[in-house]
Design brief:
The chain has 552 residues and is an alpha/beta fold. Helices cover 55% and strands 19% of the residues.
Length: 552
């Protein structure tokens, strides 16, 4: 549930710290007192876009922070993992929005996140409904997901979607091949040329560096012979060479060792140095002889390097890319030239997958059709409690022409508030008061299946009478047994049923207007209910006390 909501410098609120409890939480106050700020703060938590007009006059930033304690954090952790964030190990999730004059930021457990990620988290945290916030209920896709939740279709739906995706992929592959039948003669000639040209080159990706090295040596062979020969001569034993001088050094060292044998520890490296230099001289001589490259071989290497460069310009940055292009061209050519056989194969595979899709879809359909009348009856019963004594409600199952991602059928919620009138889709019902109560009836029917921890009802009891308001309050209180429910209301019948009652009040201090929120209980709560009843004397207080007594 939402355990803590902190608001700072948002509209008329300078600073608010609200510790909520479980069950139904009632929020009341006069019109314009600032109740809408509570809803606005929660919308920011849900990832709604914000601008600097929300910032309290004279301040640079406004901040909203919400702390959620999650009984089951698996869905939240899945979203966090996709965003590269650490999971909620202790089930605690802290969401913070900072709205500035030039930039807005959002954080989850002190890690910066995108607005899109915050919206995705919000879908799992809060279900917010106001007088006109019923688009989700009017969506047939959302209605279908509600029926699936009620029917427990998760496993059957996953199995169907997996098979459906395989079928659609195979159908797309089949359609691509059918399109290949229209391949032009020019395209086929080009594909054959490309494959033939690359095959003729007999490419090996590993030979590119080797050929390049050999070609570089062949191109510079004359200069390499000069340099290696000069180096060998400089090392040589002939007069003036390094090794000729080392012979003199060796003779002098031997004379030293005869006079003082102990010096051998200092001079023992000389013999090794002479041997290594002699080996270097021989190696340079051998290298110079090996550089005598045949002009025909040099030309062949040059032609090979030029071929590599030509193919890379045409088909890719290296030989591996050229070979990759060859494979794709060959596959396309094979698909076109042998499409008859492949078409038969793909058509058979697509037919098999279509059969499997239909089978999985029928299993899903059976669960939906079995649950639809039960859900219809459940919602109809909830509607009667909310004042629609003679209304009708039906979950209509409609077959699709073709299998869709959601199944072999769609559904439509049909509602008839008046006897004798035909049932109509919910989206065709204009009254916001009716839609609000229908939404509450659906939420009540799906209370056990709905995993959203917090439900917020913002004056959905508007445009209803006192007795209906009482029924609305009872439904929200019943929802509060399974969820945390915040009800922002003008009706004392609803407020009296709340487990906790908070009042939003506007006051002027130091020449500034600000909104504050505080809990009420005992006589203070009765006084607030009296105000909501329109004021009055002992009779109004007795009525307020009676509402509270009935709630208990």
């Amino acid at each position: 549930m939402l355990t803590l909501l902190k608001i700072r410098n948002l509209a008329l609120v300078d600073e608010l710290v609200w510790e909520l409890g479980p069950g139904l939480v009632g929020v009341t106050g006069e019109t314009g007192a600032g109740k809408s700020v509570i809803v606005g703060a929660l919308k920011l938590v849900l990832g709604e876009r914000a601008d600097k007009s929300l910032i309290r006059t004279g301040e640079d930033t406004c901040t909203v922070e919400a702390v959620f304690e999650l009984r089951d954090a698996s869905e939240i952790n899945a979203v966090l993992a996709e965003g590269g964030l650490e999971p909620c190990e202790d089930g605690s999730l802290i969401v913070r929005r900072v709205i500035g004059q030039s930039a807005n930021r959002q954080f989850v457990n002190d890690s910066p996140v995108t607005l899109n990620l915050l919206k995705r988290l919000g879908e799992h945290l809060v279900d917010l409904h106001g007088p006109h916030d019923h688009q989700s209920l009017l969506s047939t896709e959302r209605q279908l997901s509600m029926l699936d939740a009620y029917a427990g279709c998760d496993g059957a739906l996953d199995a169907y979607r997996s098979t459906w995706r395989e079928w659609r992929d195979k159908e797309n592959e089949l359609e691509d091949l059918r399109q290949a039948e229209s391949a032009s003669t020019q395209e086929l000639d080009l594909l054959r040329h490309q494959v033939g040209e690359i095959d003729a080159a007999q490419l090996k990706p590993e030979e590119e560096d080797e050929i390049a090295d050999r070609y570089r040596r062949a191109s510079n062979s004359t200069r390499l012979v000069e340099l290696s020969g000069a180096a060998a001569s400089a090392l040589g034993a002939d007069e003036g060479g390094v090794l000729s001088h080392l012979v003199d050094v060796q003779r002098l060292v031997r004379d030293l060792e005869k006079l003082d044998p102990s010096i051998r520890e200092r001079t023992q490296g000389l013999e090794n140095a002479v041997m290594e230099l002699q080996e270097l001289e021989r190696s340079l001589a051998d290298y110079s002889e090996d550089l005598d490259i045949d002009p025909a071989e040099a030309k062949r290497l040059e032609e090979r390097v030029n071929l590599f460069e030509t193919l890379k310009r045409k088909y890719g940055g290296d030989l591996a890319a050229v070979l990759g292009h060859r494979d794709r061209a060959a596959a396309r050519l094979d698909a076109v030239e042998n499409r008859g056989e492949r078409l038969e194969q793909l058509a058979a595979e697509a037919a098999r997958l279509r059969e499997a899709t239909d089978k999985a879809g029928l299993a899903l359909t059976a669960k939906r059709k079995k649950a639809a009348p039960k859900l219809s009856k459940e919602i109809a019963g909830q509607l009667k409690d909310l004042g629609f004594k003679q209304s009708s409600f039906e979950v209509q199952v409609l077959s699709n022409k073709e299998p869709a991602a959601s199944g072999l059928e769609g559904i439509e919620f049909l509602f008839g508030p008046n006897p004798g009138e035909p049932l109509q889709p919910l989206r065709q019902i204009a009254s916001s008061g009716e839609i609000s109560r229908v939404m509450l009836a659906v939420k009540s029917a799906l209370a056990e299946q709905d995993a959203t921890p917090l439900m917020v009802f913002d004056e959905i009891d508007a445009n209803v009478g006192g007795e209906i308001a009482r029924a609305v309050g009872k439904k929200m209180a019943a929802l509060g047994m399974r969820h945390q429910v915040v009800a922002i209301t003008h009706f004392p019948q609803v407020a009296a049923l709340a487990a906790r009652h908070y009042v939003v009040e506007k006051e002027v201090a130091g020449g500034r207007t600000r909104s504050r929120l505080y809990p009420v209980g005992g006589e203070n709560r009765i006084s607030e209910l009296v105000r909501m009843l329109g004021g009055g004397g002992e009779q109004a207080r007795a009525m307020a006390a009676s509402l509270l007594n009935d709630a208990t």
